[in-house]
# Entry
Amino acid sequence: MIRVLALLGAVALPGALLAQGIEGRMGRYQPLHPGLYLQAQVLHDPRDQSFDASGVRRHSIAPGSGDSQLPLTTLRVDFEWHLPLFEEADLPFFSTRTHRLRIGLQQGWTRTDGALAGYVAAEGLKNAGSGLGNLELAFGSFLVGGEDWRSRENVPRAVLLEWTVVLPTGVYERMAPTSVGDNRWAFGVDLGGLLRPWRGALLEAGVGYRRYGTDHEPAFGALMPADRGDELRYSASLSQRLHPGWHLALHLQGTQAGRNVYRDPRFTPDSPPAGLGAESRPLPGEYRDEGTRSLAAGASLYVFATPYWRLGAHVEQPLSGRSGVFDLPHVERRPAGCIPGAALCSERPGAVVRTDGMGSARQSASLRFGLSLSRQFGAAGGAGP
Amino acid sequence: MTRRLLAAALLAGLSFPATAGIVFTPHLSEYARQPRGHYTEFTLTHTRIEDSYDREGHRRPVGAPFVPPGERIDATLVTFKSLWVGNLFRDSRVPLLATRPQFCRLIVSASHQQATGAITERSRLFGLRSGGSGLGDAFGLCGIYGEEHRLGPLQFNGMLAATVKAPVGRWDEQALLNAGTDYWSVAPQLALHANLAGRLFVDATVAYQFKGHSDRPAYGGLTPTRPADMRNAEINVAWKLGPRWYVDAGFSYRETVGSNVFGGFSTRFVDPVPPEQACTLLNLADALCNSANLFFLEPQDRAYRDQGIRAQLVTAGVYYVYRSSSVLGLRLAQPVGGKGSQIDVSYDVHMGLPDLARPGRFIPGPRLSETTTTLNGVQESAAVSASPYLELRFVHLFWAP
# Structure
């Protein structure tokens, strides 16, 4: 039974990998028996709808460019170790409890469809950047619930403090509207806890904070943010055992992010029309949107095929959100294609266009779903007690 | 117990330069005979390259003289290594192999590399990009351990191995930095491990890298099409502080044998160059650079050779061994000398003439002159970083023998 509970705790919710970053996975704050836990997940977000800057649901991921879709499918494998550290050093607090070390690998497939794909093809840009995804490293300590790990049977309550680093090893195609990677480091801290309110139930809640590094070469004409706003994450979930080996989990999760910064955009699909023989170009400069937010609810069903193997099916529906949009002034250059500074090449102010930020600035409003498979290696691995 | 502890700490690795400025260097007991088993290793290495070596061996800001000082290249490399140790010939009578364990190892990597603003802007002038992320090349290595010898408190063994690098990594021909390398290599290696009284550990190796050709040079042909072979020599000395703690220090030397050949040089400005840039960027004489409204530069189609590269590196690190299954390590590497790749390239300078078919645009006109400039070779087989890097390493014994 301990093993079953341990495995249950290692479950990662599918959305954790999706662009929106779901935080509400079941068992995420549960201290487990020391050992190695492995998880594999396949997740799909059609990304054919989004919330605009006013929070209105639109039937396009980038409304300013016509109806467009940026579907994303990710395969993620997580290695998660639960282990005590520096036991013989007798470090106060640290040596007496278990800790969690996690390495997350990703592979992703994405593409550009619809009106945006037409623009990409016409301009000779790249459609998408698929391949290896970002790599996530996390280290956490169980402030409560990580003690007495040699003798404990169950953990009625726990609190986890976890530090996360995301390495931008993911493929980042600089000429495409969508990529698996996002070319910036991310640093995070999460604090959360769990309770067992009644038999077979697990109630969890937590908050997290993410800070992002700079993307010095933002993609798609610099419509991806150069600097991404800091992000606050929150989540709550309740899971219940329905039948031996069957568990149902419901969750609610949200994000609130600060203003994104866009630096020197070079083109945009919604450039204003220019006069005869002229062209419109974005005016170089630094622009900001009003930040992004999201709120989503989801459900997961878990089945334990054996005490070591567990299957999961997951679905999540965004409830509300807001994408990043900014006002981008243009200049009108005449004649089209001329080189500024050259004789006969003139520039004058053009129109200001409401422009969709891309990448992390888009908040998908599409129903997303996934499957997961988990395996516990704790007893067989060398790290067991 | 000690052997098992050490076993988890030791995963043989070659001294290949992997990505921008990062080199695989030996660790504690890297070449010791390991107990049979399956080991895994995760390594995270990060560097901020602010300085590099030129061909005279001088340390200078990265990108100089084309970008101002203060710019940098950030590079992060993660590697996953899987090592098998056993003896396939234990019950046979095959000479040498029946009594000596063999090992094979697979290394895959992923990396992120990104240059800061001025380097990125400079690249854009040529229609190029700065960064490259994604899956790196794959390394396969097999070898045999020598017999273990004892002389009083001294215990030592040899090791013979060969590594093949398959260029499966992501390769963007437009990128200044890439996760992959676009050429095969084979590297035989001879190594020695010695252990004095279970306290002092010495690991040393020499290797020679035979490199293949690259048919798709990157970054406007500033990566070699025929990278020069390379020889390496490395030594690492470790000291056991206690049952769980070790410290080490090492030295690494590598140099090319001959010159890198750049056979695909094609770096050219996307747009014609206005006079003020022609004077400053191209070092044209004032009279020449003011003689036309715009200039075109066409690289001359020929192969260039550098003077080879050289790098010397010192390392220092600390290890913590957890139970019999995991090792955490931290290492700092500091370049102490080197020589980078530079080539003198020639351009034909053409006057820019208005394109009558496309008003406001220009086409190359008559050739005005020839100009020569010195450019830096880039990426793993040409550039030599002068900046330190930090390595975090986690070794785990999945399945005990």
